[in-house]
Design brief:
Blueprint: H1 5-22, E1 36-40, E2 43-50, E3 56-60, H2 71-80, E4 82-87, H3 103-113, E5 119-124, H4 126-137, E6 142-148, H5 159-164, H6 166-173, H7 177-185, H8 199-204, H9 207-210
Parallel strand pairs: 3-4, 3-5, 5-6
Antiparallel strand pairs: 1-2, 2-4
Length: about 210
């Protein structure tokens, strides 16, 4: 049996390179697969899966946008792996939480629903934080952990991280979405936004903006 890990690491590298290249190209259309929902407590999570390989890979999106951030590499992952991605609560098609919940429990519930006993977990930014916490809580379910610019629970944010979005958020709070979007589009950490739906729709799916 061929070793699947080289494919996994190449695909993860594509996440970074394709996202950067997409900033200068047309947005990547969403896959045709309409996806499904799984019940989590009194709410539900939207998810998609593809591929028939024996190796399962779970893609966990960041804290800015939903699982469509993986559009640019989705088809490549699907060629080599049984691939799963989902919208965390309050993102994309998953309703926002109305009571306390655990994101690690949500991910575990999704995998149990899909009868996945172990998988490689790929997490980006705040999705990386969730991936680390999930690995610590459920080590028996994680074959491989791949982190892309992960946040780490319990570690303080840098001043750079806290300051870089202040101006854009202030513009958004004042209702000046056009200039707020322009500010975010210049952020080198958010180039993957260009791979998604039109900018106004994209930002409307960002929970902090929906609450403004």
């Amino acid at each position: 049996m061929n070793n699947p890990w080289p494919h996994l690491f190449r695909a993860v590298l594509c996440v970074i390179s394709c996202s950067h290249a997409a900033a200068q190209s047309e947005p990547t259309p969403a896959p045709a697969n309409p996806g499904s929902f799984v019940q989590v407590g009194d709410s539900k999570l939207y998810y998609q899966e593809c591929g028939t390989a024996s190796q399962t890979v779970v893609l966990v999106h960041d804290g800015v946008v939903d699982s469509a951030v993986w559009n640019g590499v989705w088809s490549e992952f699907c060629k080599h792996f049984h691939t799963i991605r989902y919208d965390r609560r309050g993102y994309g098609r998953s309703p926002a939480a109305t009571t306390w919940y655990s994101e690690t429990d949500d991910l575990a519930t999704l995998l149990h629903h899909l009868k996945i006993t172990s998988a490689a977990i790929v997490g980006s930014s705040h999705g990386g934080e969730l991936s680390i916490d999930f690995t610590l809580a459920h080590p028996e379910m994680v074959q491989q952990l791949v982190l892309v610019g992960a946040v780490v629970s319990g570690m303080p944010y840098s001043e750079h991280f806290l300051d870089r979005g202040k101006h854009a958020f202030e513009l958004a709070r004042k209702g000046n979405m056009k200039d707020a979007i322009s500010e975010w589009s210049k952020d080198k950490y958010l180039v993957a936004l260009a791979t998604m739906r039109p900018e106004n729709d994209c930002l409307s799916f960002y929970p902090p903006i929906r609450r403004i």
